[in-house]
Amino acid sequence: MKIKKQLLVNSAGLLFVILFVTIWTISPALSYPVTFSDSSGKTITITKSPEKVVSLIPSINEILFKIGAGDTVKAVTYHDSCHGEPDSKIVGGFFSPSLKAIDAVQPDIIFLSPLHRKVMDKFGHGKCMLITLETNSIADSYNN
User: Fold this and answer.
1) DSSP states along 27-76
2) Mean pLDDT by 10 residues, the chain (144 residues)
């Protein structure tokens, strides 16, 4: 079961790399808005470069740093090896993120898993953009 979860997180990371390498590394060549679908099938439109990102998925946080977007990461879980900027907050664990701590960051975007139902319920009503990343296979990564 643990291996399946790790594969899921790693596959979601691959999806994220493809998507955000495009957005952040060549953003001067892109014009906003940028529209795409997340793994839940929801259409996401980013109208401007994000300034405050909360990453509840450790592998996504690592990718953000590797592509040079780490300065946007303002909050992470205590499972992350990259903890963001010096003033970044720890908002709990992967399975138990603090809604109050996330709210204090006032994020533009939250990267989350379908397992984060409470986060979706609290922030899924226009307070910020939620990007759900779930991949069960390599084929799903390419489809996403």
Assistant:
1) GGG--S-EEEE-TTS-EEEE-S--S-EEE-SHHHHHHHHHTT-GGGEEEE
2) 53 60 54 82 87 87 80 83 64 88 93 91 88 71 50
Single-letter amino acid, residue 77: T
How far apart are the C-alpha atoms of 96 and 49, rounded to whole Å? Answer: 28
Q: What is the pLDDT of residue 2?
A: 55
As a whole number of Å, the CA-based R_g of the chain is 14
Dihedral, CA atoms, 139, 57, 109, 62, nearest 10 degrees?
-90
CA 111 – CA 44 distance, rounded (Å) = 12
3-class SS of residue 135: coil
User: HSE on the CB side for 47, CA within 13 Å?
Assistant: 3
- Answer whether 144's CB lies under 8 Å from 50's CB: no
Cα separation values, 1 from 4, 11, 22, Å = 5, 15, 32
Residue 144 in tokens = 């996403």
The predicted pLDDT at position 24 comes to: 55
Neighbours of 48 (CB within 10 A): 9
